[in-house]
């Protein structure tokens, strides 16, 4: 036969698309033509595939080969198509029965000796094949455990091209997924390690319960970083849908932990303040790669020493924080990644940053305003909780043996609060209070009585509170009510929300 077709999958961002690898053999000068918008790595596949076939003991068809990747308008990138192209060429040359390749997604990179090497993004690829109606997938051995998390897919593994050839010919078998046990998760930092700072601990609990963004302002040694690093320890584990989203992003980035299992713990990303725009939001040549913002999806993005970040880098977060997605346009096409994160920023109140706090500050008022002024007003307006931490006292560190609340204790309260919010908003498809549109909270049946929000309305009219700030304060009040076991917030919860919002709590 002179035509064969094999299924593969291409990725654009985290979205997988079924790709049909067509191979045609025609008379003419020997050569390989690759069509269908391949990138440089894919264009080089012709040499990798030729060497892999020959070194696997098979004969290379010394005729004119045309390999077409459908749909032709979809950009194709990477080396994941190597194994499918090799199988298509052998089937087209009559060396393999094409019936053995029908309805199977074939994924993998080939070495020159015919070994099948692991690839990035196997989880979203196999998930896309399942959505397209395929029920079987052949993947590299080292990716097999990761691929098995997709329900309804019969996953088999290969370590060499020769093993795939023997299986299709009916004289060999594929490998089952190794089933490597997931390594035990190392114990994370515990909230019990934080001495004192009742205001900061309350802020962490409220932020976790409602999914709110958080700003921690205070002198060095006050515990800003310790508190931020312990926020993931009080967040609930990811459900199946969220875990698949998070694992898919990390699969594309090549940062999955050993074992390739679903990521169940909310991720934590803390880029250095010298991070570039591309490393934070995503970027790169061709099709953009995910940045720290997307790697923190459904988890925490922590920016320590936030005023030291470049202003354009910080302001690039504004739109993704609102929409939960970032769209990156590059020469290779448009890529979209999820960015539903909790942003936590930490900052010193001034450049001199005396550990004793404001009482020892040597900065002029202008210098203090200029320093925190590096955080733009529109960005700060998107931070629901803003607290000022005071310098640590000796009594907090060594003056008491009273036990401190552990992360497990706080996490139990957070879980109850999230369950209450989920029950209230599940019909509308919202997970947390932070996701609820402000318009929904300003209309019956969720509208609060006027006396309870009267001071918010006066602040809005005077210009000291923005419309966005008004809505975010309402969301905070609902979160506080959920933590306190109330059906709806009252004047006290709105007042505490206002204090957390204005940085006056405690």
From TrEMBL:
NCBIfam families attached to this UniProt entry? YifB family Mg chelatase-like AAA ATPase
Q: What's this protein's family per the entry? A: Belongs to the Mg-chelatase subunits D/I family. ComM subfamily.
The record, for Gene3D superfamilies, names: 3.30.230.10, P-loop containing nucleotide triphosphate hydrolases
Q: Which residues form the AAA+ ATPase domain?
A: 210-393
Q: Which CDD domains match?
A: AAA (cd00009)
Question: In which domain of life is the source organism classified?
Answer: Bacteria
Q: Upper lineage ranks?
A: Bacteria, Bacillati, Actinomycetota, Actinomycetes, Micromonosporales
Q: Which InterPro entries match?
A: AAA+_ATPase, CHLI-like, MCM_dom, Mg_chelat-rel, Mg_chelat-rel_C, Mg_chelatse_chII-like_cat_dom, P-loop_NTPase, Ribosomal_Su5_D2-typ_SF
Write the protein's name. Answer: Magnesium chelatase family protein
| Database matches in SUPFAM superfamilies | P-loop containing nucleoside triphosphate hydrolases, Ribosomal protein S5 domain 2-like
Q: Which Pfam families match?
A: ChlI, Mg_chelatase, Mg_chelatase_C
Molecular function (GO) terms for this protein are: ATP binding; DNA binding
Name the UniProt key words of this record, in alphabetical order.
Answer: ATP-binding, Nucleotide-binding
């Amino acid at each position: 036969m002179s035509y064969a077709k094999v299924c593969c999958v291409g990725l654009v961002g985290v979205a997988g698309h079924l790709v049909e690898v067509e191979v045609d053999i025609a008379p003419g000068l020997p050569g390989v033509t690759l069509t269908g918008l391949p990138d440089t790595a894919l264009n080089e596949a012709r040499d990798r595939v030729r060497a892999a076939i020959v070194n696997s003991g098979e004969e290379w068809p010394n005729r004119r080969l045309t390999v077409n990747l459908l749909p032709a308008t979809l950009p194709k990138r990477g080396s994941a198509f190597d194994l499918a192209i090799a199988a298509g060429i052998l089937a087209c040359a009559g060396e393999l029965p094409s019936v053995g390749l029908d309805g199977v997604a074939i994924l993998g990179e080939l070495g020159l000796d015919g070994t099948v090497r692991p690839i990035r993004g196997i989880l979203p690829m196999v998930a896309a094949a399942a959505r397209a109606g395929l029920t079987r997938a052949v993947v590299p051995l080292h990716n097999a455990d990761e691929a098995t998390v997709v329900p309804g897919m019969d996953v088999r593994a290969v370590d060499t091209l020769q093993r795939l050839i023997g299986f299709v010919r009916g004289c060999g078998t594929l490998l089952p997924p190794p089933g490597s046990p997931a390594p035990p998760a190392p114990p994370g930092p515990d909230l019990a390690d934080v001495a004192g700072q009742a205001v900061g601990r309350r802020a962490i609990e409220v932020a976790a319960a409602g999914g709110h963004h958080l700003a921690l302002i205070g002198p060095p040694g006050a515990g800003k970083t310790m508190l931020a690093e312990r926020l993931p320890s009080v967040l609930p584990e990811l459900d199946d849908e969220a875990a698949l989203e998070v694992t898919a992003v990390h699969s594309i980035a090549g940062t999955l932990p050993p074992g390739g299992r679903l990521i169940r713990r909310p991720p934590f990303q803390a880029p250095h303040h010298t991070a570039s725009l591309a490393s934070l939001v995503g970027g790169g040549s061709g099709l953009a790669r995910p940045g720290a913002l997307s790697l923190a999806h459904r988890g925490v993005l922590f920016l320590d020493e936030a005023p030291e970040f470049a202003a354009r880098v910080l302001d690039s977060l504004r739109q993704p924080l609102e929409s939960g997605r970032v769209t990156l346009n590059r020469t290779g096409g448009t890529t979209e990644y999820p960015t539903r994160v909790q942003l936590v920023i930490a900052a010193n109140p001034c450049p001199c940053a005396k550990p004793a706090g404001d009482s020892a500050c040597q900065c002029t008022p202008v210098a203090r305003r200029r320093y925190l002024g590096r955080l733009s007003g529109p960005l700060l307006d998107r931070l629901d909780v803003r607290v000022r931490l005071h310098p640590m006292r000796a009594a907090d560190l060594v003056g008491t043996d009273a036990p401190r609340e552990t992360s497990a204790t706080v996490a139990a309260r957070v879980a109850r609060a999230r369950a209450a919010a989920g029950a209230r908003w599940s019909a509308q498809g919202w997970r947390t209070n932070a996701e609820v549109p402000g318009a929904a909270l300003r209309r019956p049946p969720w509208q609060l009585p006027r006396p309870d929000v009267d001071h918010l309305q006066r602040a809005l009219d005077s210009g000291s509170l923005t419309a966005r700030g008004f809505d975010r304060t309402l969301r905070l009040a609902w979160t506080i009510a959920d933590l306190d076991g109330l059906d709806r917030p009252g004047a006290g919860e709105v007042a505490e929300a206002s204090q957390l919002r204005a940085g006056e709590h405690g």
